[in-house]
Amino acid sequence: MAVVGQVSKVSRYLTPRCISDRCSSSLSAAHMMNENSRFGILGGGLAGLTSAYYLSKRLPESSQIIVWEKADRFGGWVQSSRVDDQTNGGSFVFESGPRSVRPKGLAGLISLELIRDLKLLDSVIVIPKTHPSAKNRYIYTKHGLQKLPSSVFSLITSIYKRPISLIPRALLTDLLHTTGKSRTRCIDDESIHEFIARRFGGGIGEELVSGMVHGIYAGDYKKLSVKSSLFKSVWEMEREYGGVLKGLRSSDKRQHSTDSNDEEKLRKTLDGKPLHDLINSSVWGLKGGLETLIVALREWLGRKPNVILKSAESIQSVDISPDSPSKVITSCGVYEHIDHLISALPPQILHSCLGPSLQDRLQFLTANPSVTVGVVNLAYRSARRINPIPPAFGYLIPASIGADLNPHRVLGVVFDSDMMPGVEERVGGEEVTKLTVMLGGHYYSTQLEPIPTTDQLITQACQTIKNQLGIAQDPFYAQAQIQKDCIPQYLVGHHQRMRELHRLLKSLNLSLVGSGYSGVGLNDVVKSAKDSVENLVNNGCSSGLEIFDT
Q1: 272: alpha, beta or left, given left = phi > 0 and alpha = psi -120 to 50?
Q2: ω before 163 within 30° of 0 (cis)?
Q3: 374: region left, alpha or beta (phi > 0 left; psi from -120 to 50 alpha)
Q4: What would the pLDDT profile of 35-87 be if each residue is shown by its tens digit?
Q5: Residue 202, class by beta-carbon neighbours within 10 Å (0-12 exposed, 13-18 middle, 19+ buried)?
Q6: 320: left (phi over 0), alpha (psi -120 to 50) or beta
Q7: Which of 59, 165, 259, 484 has a CA positioned 20 to 30 A from the CA of residue 71?
Q8: SS3 at position 535
Q9: What is the C-alpha to C-alpha distance for residues 166 and 52, in angstroms, rounded to an integer?
Q10: Hey, how many other C-beta atoms are within 10 angstroms of the C-beta on 100?
Q11: Does the entry feature the keyword Cell wall biogenesis/degradation, yes or no (predicted)?
């Protein structure tokens, strides 16, 4: 549903102090650098650790930074596990969370800068744009797997095959605009489905776009905000140029001047062949899995005298006041005199830790749900390639595929051995083929049945691989994880709600970072942490949501 000039339900809380252009927090930038300043970071996932990293680099060693994590490990959803084969010797690596990173835009460069500064360049696996997994991606259709076009030639050769045949038709619809009507200025947001249907006509959303949304957000494209998704740029092209193709063809290229300038400056500092190859690659990963980054961050922070890392210690409550230091109560004790808090917790978890007054004031923290994803890693032994599909990234399953062809609500399958080779995947001299099956997401949010157990997930994943890929062989090793509430769902109106939340937070010593706000990808999370810390140190305050103040 489109958002048409809605008035916020919490607008009554917006006092002049809150909506001032200046920070109304009691801290000043000078006080922020005070040798006795004390900072608390709620959550020890990637967002929390990178926030501590950037803070420690900017603050004097006499300051104190405390990171609380409820689990017995740090890293959050970045989870890599090494499996030892007791039969044949050797080992291989499974990823239960993200497994590759795109070096795209300013956020991508910030992640590369972090990798360089942590001295991880020797561990980087570069996947060039010419690699088969970069060029070969598939969508599952009623007739089996269909390769998505990676060039104009491949588009022409697939022109009569659905859903590829829908692409030129959609582009023509956009150019001529024979269906739907242009967006009026009063529409501030709409769902991805509404935008695609209005701009490109029917069919392509259900058969193609919904699959892309499954792969990134594990979400329902009929509910997610287009303005806060990967389609934001094309949505803005329509506003500026009246059409997407017109925007792409325009010689007056759209530019975000601040990001463009910052990107150019950062790019100049990332010189040398390894970084040049990385910047121009399709994706990159790390030997041993992406948790190698978490290990490096932990080791770096562990050497800093002003950083205290506390695992297996959950947040019970947080007392935040505009005019006095904050207090944090955990499962292990009470921490007082916290000058500034950075929350890397999921928004709804943070909301549950606040007092009644702040819960009411910051109710937008509960506006977006999160989805649960079942992740099943499978390993097959084979002296030859067992996957009938040529080397590829994998395939996605769109919403158009019903329960008859996709009974277990699989979102997509990643061909790990193809898309990220070189992550120690040989066992006893034999070749190992690794696949990852992702299930559930938004489907689990609407089904009446309980979420499957890990054993059930493994059975469902193996059945899916046999039915959709024709691999009759059973895996010699399988593991499953239920990643509960792992991906936030930015519903329609997300940008407007975050803008309101940003204004409300100006009066509090609290910053928000992580995937719950300005992007669900690894690059987004790292950038949000760095931006928040820079604003905090330079200006004496930061909501973490400054990007929405437009």
Answers
A1: left
A2: yes
A3: beta
A4: 689 999 999 999 999 999 999 999 999 999 999 999 999 999 999 999 987 77
A5: middle
A6: beta
A7: 59
A8: helix
A9: 47
A10: 21
A11: no
Superfamily of domain covering 11-75+289-367+490-548: FAD/NAD(P)-binding domain (3.50.50.60)
What whole-number distance in Å separates Cα of residue 328 and Cα of residue 314? 10
- Chain centroid to Cα 460, Å, comes to 26
Task: Specify the residue for token string 């089904």.
Answer: 447
For the record, the structure tokens of 326 come out as 């904050």
Find the radius of gyration of the CA atoms of the chain.
24
The span from the CA of 406 to the CA of 409, in Å, is: 6
CA angle 488, 535, 231 (to 5 degrees): 35
Q: Report which of residues 84 and 21 the model is more confident about.
A: 84
Is 328:338 a contact under the CB 8 Å cutoff? yes
CA angle 196, 197, 203 (to 5 degrees): 100
Describe the crossing of helices 522-539 and 105-117 by its angle, rounded to 10 degrees.
Answer: 80
Query: Do the beta carbons of residue 332 and residue 313 sit within 8 Å?
Result: yes
Q: Which residues contact 499 (CB under 8 A, 6 or more apart)?
A: 545, 548, 549, 550
Task: Specify the amino acid at residue 265.
Answer: K
pLDDT tens by residue, 130-165:
999 999 999 999 989 999 875 544 444 444 456 655
First to last CA, the chain: 22
Structure token digits, residue 261: 């300038």
- In degrees and rounded to multiples of 5, residue 220 shows phi and psi of -95, 115
Residue 285 β-bridge partners: 125
